[in-house]
Amino acid sequence: MRAIFRQELEQLGDNLIEMSQLVATAVQKAAKALADSDLALAEQVIDEDEQINELERTVDEMCVSLLARQQPVATDLRVVVTGLMMSTTLERMGDLARHVAYVARGRYPRTAASGDVQKLLNKMGKAATEMAKLVVSLMESRDLSEAARIETDDDHLDQLHREVFTRVLNKDNELDRQELIDIILLARFLERFGDHCVSLARRTSFLVTGDLSNSVSLPLEEDATDPHAG
Amino acid sequence: MRAIFRQELEQLGDNLIEMSQLVATAVQKAAKALADSDLALAEQVIDEDEQINELERTVDEMCVSLLARQQPVATDLRVVVTGLMMSTTLERMGDLARHVAYVARGRYPRTAASGDVQKLLNKMGKAATEMAKLVVSLMESRDLSEAARIETDDDHLDQLHREVFTRVLNKDNELDRQELIDIILLARFLERFGDHCVSLARRTSFLVTGDLSNSVSLPLEEDATDPHAG
């Protein structure tokens, strides 16, 4: 019974790692589709999101089944409950990557942005991809130095987000309305993606250290529409 | 033991209802603060969000404690797991109301938008408030006709969201960059708020009917930056 239980917990961890890999691939492809105006790649991200959703359902059912049959306590219980939370977060990250891909697809053969703002959005896409890869690596290794790096990288991503606002507010940058809408939402999607990476990093830290103080949902964003708010 | 368990499950339900009430109040006040450029009201929403976050922590701890001590199965297990999911959703809705309040505060003594677009945003704020009140009522009564109304109301909210984009894309509407940013993000916050109401309605339906088919996370948004996408 216990052996099966351990095996199932391991399977749960593997499924979460697989989800995080799919999410990292999705955001990487979405960012590339956006940068290169690559329609086929954007379509791929949109189609492949269903795999992530499917895995979320699998993980959730697995967690509920584990709770019902194995009635875990203490650390094992935390692993299962945290697994439920993480699958929801990863599914949402997949959605955000899909949203980015939608914009790339919608503007094809043009790019959604151009010039300096495009460069900034590309940087945001790369930063989000790096963070997602760190999440995969953290979930595989449980090396908490990677959790710390995710927090630092998120500060960088937030900084880029603020720079996008600064550029957009500068009227010297000629932007039509559709470009403005796209840029603001793309920056928001990528910034939220980063927040979710931080949430995963904190939950993983909590599983490793048992210290809840840094793992609960902290305010990750201040004034979302005011780039000067911090 | 069972009597205590039932009592605790009831307490869990009461806490979730209380969270939903706080969230409904938050979005109502935030929408009013935005419409009337009411700084004090905006500040209230921002301050009071901590109560919602606090209740989320309480609910989560309660759920984990229930799982550990009572080891529920079948329906009771679903109630507890769903409670965990719902508290996360409600907490996020509180954040979205807070974001709306941030914009109201940031633009005071001006309003964030004016003219027709302001009217549309006010309609969105009212629609979101109505939906949040229906969520409270649904969670209290378990009357599934209210779940159906939430779905219908969300279609209306999405329609208003698309109208905002249409107006913003029309260059005849004079809007400066800050207004554009505010409008796009406010519309997005309120539209997401509605999605979360639908998610809560589906989870509640699932608890009542046991039918999962309509309760899992369905794609609630299509192309988030293209108002013509559906």
TrEMBL record, chains A, B:
Instruction: Give the record's GO CC terms.
Output: cytoplasm
* Annotated localization: Cytoplasm
GO BP annotation list: intracellular phosphate ion homeostasis; negative regulation of phosphate metabolic process; phosphate ion transport
Oligomeric and partner information: Homodimer.
- Recite the UniProt keywords alphabetically: Cytoplasm, Phosphate transport, Transport
Query: By its UniProt entry, which PANTHER family does this protein fall under?
Result: PHOSPHATE-SPECIFIC TRANSPORT SYSTEM ACCESSORY PROTEIN PHOU (PTHR42930)
- Its recorded name reads Phosphate-specific transport system accessory protein PhoU
NCBIfam families reported for this sequence? phoU_full
Q: Which family does it belong to?
A: Belongs to the PhoU family.
Q: Which InterPro entries match?
A: PhoU (IPR028366), PhoU-like_sf (IPR038078), PhoU_dom (IPR026022)
Entry-linked Pfam families: PhoU
Phosphoprotein in keyword set: no
UniProt xrefs under SUPFAM superfamilies: PhoU-like
Q: Does the keyword Transport apply?
A: yes
Please explain the role this protein plays, according to its UniProt record.
Plays a role in the regulation of phosphate uptake.
* Residue ranges of every copy of the PhoU domain listed in the record: 16-102, 121-203
